Amino acid sequence: MTRINPGLPALLLALSACSGTGAGGPSLLPRAVETRSNAEPVRPAPVATPDAALDAQIAERSHAFDRAADAFERQAAAIGPTITRARGAREGSEAWVAGQVALGELSEARAAVESAAAGLEELAIARESARAAPYTALDTALAAANARVERITAADAALRQPF
Prior knowledge:
- The protein is an all-alpha fold.
- It has a domain at about 50-160.
- The longest helix is centred in the middle third of the chain and has 37 residues, at about 50-90.
- The protein has helices spanning about 5-20, 30-35, 50-90, 95-130, 135-160.
- Helix 3 packs parallel to helix 5 (about 135-160) and helix 4 (about 95-130) packs antiparallel against helix 5 (about 135-160).
- It contains 5 helices and no strands.
- The protein is elongated, with a radius of gyration of 39 Å.
């Protein structure tokens, strides 16, 4: 039988007295800084106050845009037969020249539409530059103008198809 060294139990007893309950070590729970969010706080959207002067400018520029767009659409309808005749004509013929002239006039009408749309966009750019709150009437007018410009662009492209 082996004998246990009498000093070993005393050594183990002495070492056990040195160990603590573990309360002296760092906590593994999340710290306060780890639980905070770094996301931007949600701020309510600013509300624009009614502005009679801006409303008048929007109405004026929208009306100018509508007049230009109506003129383009009337002109596009009027030159349809001329373009149809020019498509089948040989280059340099009278029908071809008439078609080219009609397309040039249509380009002028389209430039007027784009200029009028730019007038509305200038108002939006000025508000954005001033960091003003979004203005519903302006946004609505601009969206309507942009939709109509897209339709006009499609009509213009259709008239210019292989010419």
